[in-house]
């Protein structure tokens, strides 16, 4: 009976409908007019879209259990391991840093715009470091390991990534004066959009979303971010506003002539939980052990993925530059006029 109740509570928590159920039980529907009530009504959106996505895939006979199996296992594991770590990290940063804020904000609309721009900057910093520092990539790579894109991928994270991300994002926002109520509102909006942009082609075929593709970061942009194509590596780090990707030249549109290949550059067994979850930590450890000298061992921890003490680097920057040069050479060759054969006398 306890097991059944536990499963039921976990299911309710996953669907995000616990507060809706409570409102229905009490009959106090006026709560829906409050900010918490609005959050309660929106929370089931992503799980509902995930179920619709799976349902459409089954209906059109495109459903593959392997596309959803590993994110599900990771979600279950994280529910047991890290339920309260992220909340504690946010609370700690607020408690320690709020008194050092550069300015004071409130819930006015102009402070909301300011706060969102600051939040997006802090998200860019965390996300950029997650791709450019090897130890942080070990935490982030679990999210990139799935070889298809669908809403279940939003639940695939290493258990330490959320606390690490929230320490960076919360610290920057609090120091820049984004007060906690405003920060929590932005976190909710950005978290909902951040989950939605993982939507797969089973639900939305063209992730560009029409004119929105030129204004904000859409599922199309995030599909690019999850790609292992050389041109797409380490791009589109922002979540909703693309301002910082454009400032730091990491913005990349999806090309219609390039098929997206999802996953990470090393060979991964997508059906092996330990390879998906701990694989990058294992390979980092192997590199550290074989590296000569303390300096090289430490460099493997902080340098980008693909860095080598031998100088034979295979970082995203190196791989992308090689691809761009090859593509330019191919285009230049294709643009050369064909030589005209001389005609002989009859």
TrEMBL record:
One of its GO terms (molecular function) is glyceryl-ether monooxygenase activity. It holds the Pfam family FA_hydroxylase. Residues 113-250 form the Fatty acid hydroxylase domain. It is a multi-pass membrane protein. One of its GO terms (cellular component) is endomembrane system. Keywords: Lipid metabolism, Membrane, Oxidoreductase, Transmembrane, Transmembrane helix. The chain crosses the membrane at residues 38-59, 80-97, 109-129. GO terms for biological process: lipid biosynthetic process; membrane lipid metabolic process. It is found in: Endomembrane system. This is Sterol desaturase/sphingolipid hydroxylase, fatty acid hydroxylase superfamily. It comes from Chitinophaga terrae. The lineage of its organism: Bacteria, Pseudomonadati, Bacteroidota, Chitinophagia, Chitinophagales.
